[in-house]
Write a structure and sequence with these properties.
Distance between the termini: 43 Å
Helix content: 25-40%
CATH class of the largest domain: Alpha Beta
Number of strands: 31
Shape: globular
Strand content: 15-25%
CATH architecture of the largest domain: 3-Layer(aba) Sandwich
Largest sheet: 6 strands, mixed
Oligomer: single chain
Number of domains: 3
Bound molecules: ligand MGD, molybdenum atom
């Protein structure tokens, strides 16, 4: 097995420059609008910028690859946000990562560049191969690439030794074909980014309400009295959600923000379009900020539930008719003392009372959440506590109310709906098998964490990724790297260069694909694809820009050609890429809720069935909504340590680094930052810019990362925050959420050591 000498797996420190400003109090507005235009113009030129920004999220345009937040029904003007525009501009870059580029830089040299630099080089233009023992990628043609994959699968002769990852940008059509290919091959080894993202939400909701998805529509925000935003930073990660929150407020709703950080977007918001109407005032959003300690949400929720019970602010009819487990839930919550609630949550009794008051007086409450809840050991449990609070008031299946997990990747929900799942249900497989004439394996496959373990055990011959950046997105970067190096062949279907192209198996392929923004022409003509947003609405996405290279292919084309080469299953796979209508026709038969798919999706799209939302029906084991209450997690740790959360800056899309700033938090030019409470710093005699090394502790094992600068920040004492993916080297592989196996990226126990070397004030 070849280990390429000198190839490193973590992001190197590129410089020590750091400028600290006051965190912003207003999100969006003119700086956001100019920032999106500038990003666009820098990366794709003026004409392309205007063309691109005017076709995002339009009925006839493409779905924004930025996030899964839904579009308003009548998007007559620009419906984009700063970060959506950045995502689009980033995809629309020129094809700089071409065979000449790969001739110039060895894999070893590339691995020593920063993530920011790698992304700046542009789009990948040709299929490339890294041959065994070689340090340079070489051009290869598509057919030879597919043959190499086929040979690997034939030699391995065991489908369970192949693992197929999916990131969440892949269209419904490509994802459906991909899972059909993988199941025909004979395995359910389909880990996906969801395993690290909203898996906890899916499991929690499935047990509680019988569907692993949220129950609100965008319109519900206009009819809501109260919106809880828990563990989510919409100003950066779902900026278009701020418009929905603003409109909700204009209609009289209140907003409660539950977060260890106040997060600019939730403080005040200024819609970029308002400038065009010459209205310059900003609007405040959150009415109450509950500055919970990291991991303190379960305690807080017990407190809020206690208050509803005390005030008898509960929907007795709904509870009697449609739910189960109420008495057990009440007994459990009553056994939690107020002392414990205040201590674990870090929030005073008065503040909790204030929030409890708003909740009890609301007739229609929506609860939104994201990674601040899912990426904890009790991720599933704490989301079920959110469900308890919502069920208690009957805030489900009625206007203006419901549960709203806010998804990340723009089609992560759709990918799961069409079958990207390592643990498919028997009902899903039965229908798939009947419609497609295959016999899918019934044994569950591996998720992300299990895949890494399997690689490290030498049990993976082929590791293929439909998008994403597996090395950097996963926990425990060094363990993941050693796993990847243990694989015979790694294959990345990608748009942009990333670290997963550099830390590879013995042999590695890069198969470059079209992005969402690009025109996709196949034999029958121009094609469109379909996606599902965070609220279960399925609609069309059609790119309008010229592809960055003639040698890249669409994801459906890649999968159907690969299947033709690898499988001998008697199916004519070529009809799928010739005309995507053929894929959708098969999906109509093979998937629940997709009847007459082609017609319905062409007709403005449609909402997938959602029994709790549509009819207050719950497809659970007892056909009732279930109160599921849990003992509080232990959030105690040694007095000299910290609980660390790893979060996103304003200038990144997951592992893609657009720039080195985090404007809303006042951080400029550097990402190796530890946000820390000033009191904790004073106790140690530290000032901002103190350089520290971070050591994480789990199960007696220490992981270390050197050279981070401390910045004083409004964060609870004993809590710190660092950026993902630089900090992933510190996230223990074995530290995962119960039931969902999601890495606990928001709960890493660390100590900080003063480094001897210091950095200059500003360079
Ligand atoms: N521009 C941009 N947009 C994106 C992405 C991106 O990287 N860039 N990523 C996309 C993806 S895949 C996803 S999943 C989403 C992620 O969207 P978010 O979930 O908003 O992303 P994170 O930065 O992980 O932020 C988590 C938030 O939870 C808070 N938090 C952390 N721990 C706790 C806790 O214990 N309790 C509470 N109450 N809060 C806590 C943090 O302070 C932070 O505000 O965004 C999507 N959209
Ligand atoms: N510590 C820590 N770790 C985390 C998180 C965290 O909060 N903290 N968040 C987790 C979450 S929520 C998620 S979702 C994962 C994200 O994990 P991934 O989805 O694996 O990572 P991304 O960075 O989104 O993937 C970026 C790459 O996708 C490719 N790409 C972009 N668009 C397309 C396309 O249209 N098609 C194809 N085929 N490829 C494309 C590009 O090559 C790009 O380099 O990370 C997780 N990891
Ligand atoms: Mo995500």
């Amino acid at each position: 097995m070849s280990k390429r000498e000198g190839v490193i797996s973590t992001t190197p420190i590129d410089h020590n420059y750091l400028k600290i400003k006051k965190p912003k109090s207003i999100a969006a507005g003119i700086p956001a609008a100019t920032s999106s235009m500038l990003h666009g113009i820098k990366k794709m030129g003026i004409t392309k910028t205007i063309k691109t920004l005017t076709t995002i999220n339009q009925p006839l345009g493409f779905d924004c690859p930025g996030c899964a937040w839904p579009d308003p029904d009548h998007s007559s003007t620009f419906e984009f946000c700063e970060n959506g525009a950045k995502a689009v501009a980033d995809e629309a870059m020129k094809g700089g990562v071409n065979p000449e580029f790969f001739g110039k830089y060895s894999v070893q040299e590339l691995s020593q560049k920063s993530d920011f630099w790698l992304n700046q080089q542009g789009r990948i233009t040709h299929p490339m191969i890294l041959r065994k023992g070689s340090n340079y990628y070489e051009k290869i043609d598509w057919k030879e690439g597919f043959e190499i994959i086929r040979n690997n699968i034939k030699e391995s002769n065991n489908p369970d030794k192949a693992v197929f990852y999916t990131s969440g940008r892949t269209s419904n059509e490509a994802a459906f074909l991909y899972q059909l290919f993988v199941r025909t091959l004979g395995t359910n080894n389909m880990p996906d980014c969801s395993n690290m993202c909203h898996e906890s939400s899916g499991i929690a909701l499935m047990e509680a309400i019988g569907i692993g998805k949220g129950t609100v529509t965008l319109d519900d925000f206009n009819h809501s009295d109260l919106i809880l935003v828990v563990g989510q930073n919409p100003g950066t990660n779902h900026p278009r959600m701020l418009t929905a929150l603003r409109d909700a407020k204009r209609n009289g709703a209140k907003i409660i923000n539950i977060n260890p950080l106040s997060e600019t977007g939730l403080v005040r918001f200024k819609h970029p379009q308002d400038y065009m109407k010459l209205s310059f005032g900003s609007e405040s959003l959150a009415d109450i900020h509950l500055q919970v300690k990291i991991g303190g949400d379960a305690a807080l929720l017990h407190g809020l539930i206690k208050l509803q019970l005390e005030k008898n602010a509960i929907d007795n009819d709904f509870i009697m008719e449609s739910t189960s487990g109420f008495d057990e839930m009440v007994a459990n919550v009553n056994s939690t003392s107020w002392e414990r609630i205040v201590r674990d949550s870090g929030i005073s009794r008065e503040k909790i009372n204030e929030a409890g008051e708003l909740i009890s007086s609301s007739n229609a409450t929506i609860a939104c959440w994201a990674m601040g809840l899912t990426q904890h050991k009790n991720g599933v449990n704490v989301i079920q506590e959110v469900c308890n609070l919502i069920l208690l008031g009957g805030h489900i299946g009625k206007k203006g109310a419901g549960l709203c997990p806010v998804r990340g990747h723009s089609n992560v929900q759709g990918d799961r709906t069409v079958g990207i799942w390592e643990r498919p249900t028997a009902a899903f497989l039965d229908l798939l098998d009947a419609a497609c004439g295959i016999t899918s394996p019934r044994e569950h496959g591996v998720d992300v964490v299990e895949a890494i373990t399997k690689m490290n055990e030498g049990d993976v011959d082929l590791f293929m990724c439909m998008g994403g950046n597996f090395l950097s997105a996963t926990p425990d970067t060094k363990t993941t790297a050693s796993g990847l190096r243990n694989v015979k062949l790694t294959v990345q279907i990608s748009t942009k260069l990333n670290r997963s192209h550099l830390v590879t198996g013995d042999e590695a392929l890069i198969l470059p694909c079209l992005g969402r923004t690009e025109i996709d022409i196949q034999k029958s003509g121009k094609q469109f694809v379909t996606v599902e947003n965070s609220m279960g609405i399925v609609h069309i996405s059609e790119g309008g820009l010229k592809p960055c290279s003639q040698d890249i292919r669409s994801e459906p084309w890649i999968v159907s050609n690969l299947a033709t080469m690898v499988l001998d299953d008697g199916r004519d796979w070529s009809e799928f890429h010739t005309d995507y209508n053929n894929i959708r026709d098969l999906m109509s038969k093979a998937l629940f809720g997709f009847e007459d798919y082609n017609n319905r999706v062409k007709n403005n799209g449609f909402a997938l069935p959602n029994p709790p939302r549509d009819s207050r029906n719950f497809d659970t084991h007892n056909s009732l909504a279930n109160f599921l209450s849990h003992k509080l997690p232990n959030v105690e740790f040694d007095h000299d340590k910290f609980a660390m959360m790893t979060i996103r800056s304003h200038d990144q899309y997951n592992t893609t680094i657009y720039d080195l700033h985090d404007r809303y938090r006042g951080i400029h030019g550097n990402r190796r930052i530890v946000l820390m409470n000033a009191t904790d710093m004073t106790k140690r005699g530290w000032k901002s810019r103190q350089v520290v090394d971070i050591i994480s502790h789990f199960d007696g094992v220490q992981r270390r990362s050197d050279g981070w600068q401390v910045v004083a920040y409004e964060i609870p004492e004993k809590n710190i925050a660092t950026y993902f993916p630089e900090a992933n080297v510190l996230v223990p592989l074995e530290s995962t959420a119960d039931k969902s196996n999601t890495p606990t990226s928001k709960w890493i126990i660390c100590s900080l050591l003063e480094t001897r070397h210091t950095v200059s004030e500003e360079e």
